[in-house]
Structures are given as C-alpha cells and as structure tokens.
Amino acid sequence: MKFDDEPVPGYSLPILPGHVSPGRLERVLRAGKFAVTSEIDPPDSADPAEVLKRAAIFDGYVDAINATDGSGANCHMSSVGVCSLLTRVGYATILQISCRDRNRIAIQGEILGGAAMGACNLLCLTGDGVQAGDHPQAKPVFDLDSMSLLEIARAMRDEQRFDSGRHIAVPPRIFLGAAENPFVPPLDWRPHRLAKKVAAGAQFIQTQYCFDIERLREFMLKVNDLGLLEGPDRVFILPGIGPLASARSARWIRANVPGVHIPDAVIARLEGAENQKEEGKQLCMDLLNEIREIPGVSGAHIMAYRQEHTVAEIIKATGVLEGRVPWYPGRDDPKELNPESSEALLS
Amino acid sequence: MYRMRRWVVRHSRAFEMIYRRFEPVLVKLAPVWRRLGYERIEAPVRSVEKAVKGALFDCQMCGQCVLSDTGMSCPMNCPKSLRNGPCGGVRANGHCEVKPEMMCVWVDAWEGSRRMKHGDRIHAVQLPVDYRLEGTSSWLRVVRQQDGTSSSTAKSETTK
C-alpha cells in the first residue's frame, strides 16, 4: 500500500482524523487491511549494521517490526536503541517496554525518547520474571504493571502530562499496544482482562504464540461479545504465530518458555513428519491460514526466533498481504536503501 | 501462610461481609481516633493490622489495600507485584511462572472474586502502587479519607 500523502517515503505520515499516530501500522489496521508484524532479535552487540541486517530480512513483508525489550529476561541491545536505528532509515517500529527492569521515572523518559526517535507504536508489557533469563540474580523492578503502564502512556499522549501531573510540551504520538495470552489460565478471565487493557488504553494486541486454534476462536468470540471490536475505541488483534524447528524444540519451549501452550497434537504432528523443520513451517502456514479466517482478527504477529528468514516464505505462501508490499527502504527509491540489505550489498 | 491465604480465598464471600461490617465501625469511631491523634495511633494500629492481615492474607503492608477488588487474594504476593490481573506466564496447572510451587495469586483472585457479591470490581483498573505508603496502615488511611483529614494522594474507596 502506498500513501499518497507520504512526505518522504518511510518518514512519519500526517496524522489522519481519528488516528493517534503518524505511523503506518495504525494506517494499515484502520484501513482494514490484514497487517503483518514480526520481531527482531536484538543483537548482543553494539554494532548498528547488525540491526539493519536483521531488519532487511523482512523487507517487503511486514508492516512493522517489534524490537524486543530484554525478552526472556536476557540481556540484549535495548529496544529504544534498535528502534532508533531502524527509524533512521524509515522502518516502522514497535517499541517494547517491559515493567521488569525500570521504574516509572525511567519508563516515561523512554516513551518520550522513543517517540522522539520516530517510534510510532508502543507495546506495553509486564515482562518475564528475572528467573527466566541470564541474570536471575537481578532485582525485579515491576514498579508498574502492563495495565498502569498503558494508562500512563495514554495520559502522556492524550492529556500531555506525566503520571506526576507535570505538563509535557509535545506529547508522544504513539499507537498503544499490549500483549495477551488467551491460551493459559484463567482462560475464562482472559477476554475480560483484554477488556481491562482496552479500558486502560490498548489499541492493538499481539498475542503469545498460538498453536491452539480452538482456544483462539473461543477467545475471539468472547472478545467480540464484549464489544471490543467495534467503535472508535476498538482494538485490533494480531495473534502471534511462529514456526517450530522440531518436536524436540517444541517440547523444550513448552517446558521452559513461560506461557507457551503447545497441544500434544502439534508435537505429534511434528514427530510424525520426515522433515520436522519443513513440517514446522507448514504448520505455521496452516495456522496463519486458519487465523485469517477468524472473524475479528486484524493481522498476525510472526515470531520466528532464529528462523527469521522463513517469515518471507510464510507470508508469500499464504498470500495474506493480498499483493500489498509494505514499505521498506528502497521500495520506491533505490537511493533510500537500507545500507545493510542484500540489494545494497550487491550493488 | 500459604495455606491460610488460600483458605481465605475459598471463603472470600464471608470475608467480604466481615469487611463490610468492619469498615463503617472503624469510620464511625473517627472522632475517637482524632482525639487520640492519628500520628500517635498509627504505630499500634499498624501492628494490629499487620498481624491480622499478615496471618490471613500474607499481607505485605503496601498501605493501599485492594483485597476486596481482588477476590481477597493479596496481589502483593505476586512475584511481579501485578495489581491488575495475571501475566501471560501462568502455567497450565494454574501455578506461578516465577514460583512453580505456588498457585498464581491471580488465578486465586479470579476464583475468589466470583464468590463475592461485588466480585466484578476485579475488572476495575488499579493505579500503580504509591511506595510512600508502604508499611503504613491501610485501615487508618481509609478512615482519614472518609473523615476528611487525609493528606495521602492515593485513591481508594473502601477499607480492605
């Protein structure tokens, strides 16, 4: 999709009536297109080229790139650092902030900094516990929770004030997102918890990995019944999916990654396959095809950790973009190329 | 104590009723508290509150109790101190991601709230904790708020 009021390709768009951000993700969602987001695994390095290289893998296939914030409670380059590098060449980013590592003073500063650097989307997360990562000896902060983080971010944007009440001269123009996990207990509370997040300010939701379509369907039905998918304050839901590398890795994820629900049938399907990796990819495509048919679903969030190159293949094979080519540096003007993309390296 | 607090959640309705009778009494006695001086009684009341709520709910004395909005399950026992519901890491058996031996505080809260008359208060968004109030008496704070002598900035409508 090309926006005819795009000033410089890739840079912030004018904010349309009824929109809150100058970003492309909000435009795509409000235009009713099936949006695709994916996430970058931030490097354990201070090398900016590495970030651009990891983003180039998604060129032409995703509407926005999530930059994770110490995911799994492991140390990596910061989300705001990754976003800043990406927005410099025009990528649409989703800044992630988890409540685990910073208090409300640091977080509000980060929201202003991220927005100033061109991040138009903010994903508000609680964060994995420190026990899950490489620094279990660290102090878990959790000064806020994802809900109060959403409320504070919304007040910064809409009321131009910090949580303290102090005035903000130019508010952050951010589209607010949150996570939800419809696949873990208490299952019957999850739709209500989503409603609470929407009440606190969430405008889009990226879910935890979905491997159980039935649970997602039930969840979406209830979310629809709660009236969350209508009106100006509606929420856009992007279920999370991803390719599993093998039955063994699926078992490991199920046992060790907090909150990932993988039914036995999925593991059995992988185990029965000759090429488990291919089957994992196929499973992901099948899930995507089923998810797009569920009423109320606005897109998908593809998390292909250490298999990022499969994202393009999954999107192409399923045709979810319906011929759309999301903007990337160089799409319209070769001079705008991401300096680390393969095209740039070849020329 | 873990077993005690889980027992309380199973009887959340009874505790809700006890609290609803207890609060007006506490508030009615405001003139007495005022005469004695809120500053002077803070320490003894705090000790009583800590002993009672510690035994029943594993109260952490955050100073801004939300028990009757959370199914009588104290959210400060959540290792992530979440005040607004469970995280996405709850195990399939309902146990905590961080402390696998413990039932998720919010799975209990949901159960507890469904037994309560005003259990739907669990859907209200809670403000972040005001850490200046940590270790102070939540009971006295509510009395002072209703008595109009409160200097506190945190909001709360009822005693818990």
UniProtKB/TrEMBL annotation, chain A:
Zinc found in the keyword field: no
CDD domains named in the record: MTHFR
Catalytic activity: (6S)-5-methyl-5,6,7,8-tetrahydrofolate + NAD(+) = (6R)-5,10-methylene-5,6,7,8-tetrahydrofolate + NADH + H(+)
Protein origin, superkingdom: Bacteria
GO biological process per UniProt: methionine biosynthetic process; tetrahydrofolate interconversion
Cofactor: FAD
Residue span of region Disordered: 328-347
GO molecular function list: FAD binding; methylenetetrahydrofolate reductase (NADH) activity
Classification via Pfam families: MTHFR (PF02219)
Annotated InterPro entries: FAD-linked_oxidoreductase-like (IPR029041), Mehydrof_redctse-like (IPR003171)
SUPFAM superfamilies: FAD-linked oxidoreductase (SSF51730)
Keywords, ordered alphabetically: FAD, Flavoprotein, Oxidoreductase
Pathway assigned in UniProt: Amino-acid biosynthesis; L-methionine biosynthesis via de novo pathway; One-carbon metabolism; tetrahydrofolate interconversion
Keyword Flavoprotein: yes
GO CC annotation: cytosol
PANTHER family hit by this protein: METHYLENETETRAHYDROFOLATE REDUCTASE, METHYLENETETRAHYDROFOLATE REDUCTASE (NADPH)
Family: Belongs to the methylenetetrahydrofolate reductase family.
Protein name as catalogued: Methylenetetrahydrofolate reductase
Automatic annotation (TrEMBL), chain B:
Pfam assignment, any one: DUF5981
Methylene-tetrahydrofolate reductase C-terminal-like domain boundaries: 41-131
InterPro entries for the chain: DUF5981 (IPR022026)
Protein name: Methylene-tetrahydrofolate reductase C terminal
Organism for this UniProt entry: Halomonas saccharevitans
Lineage: Bacteria, Pseudomonadati, Pseudomonadota, Gammaproteobacteria, Oceanospirillales
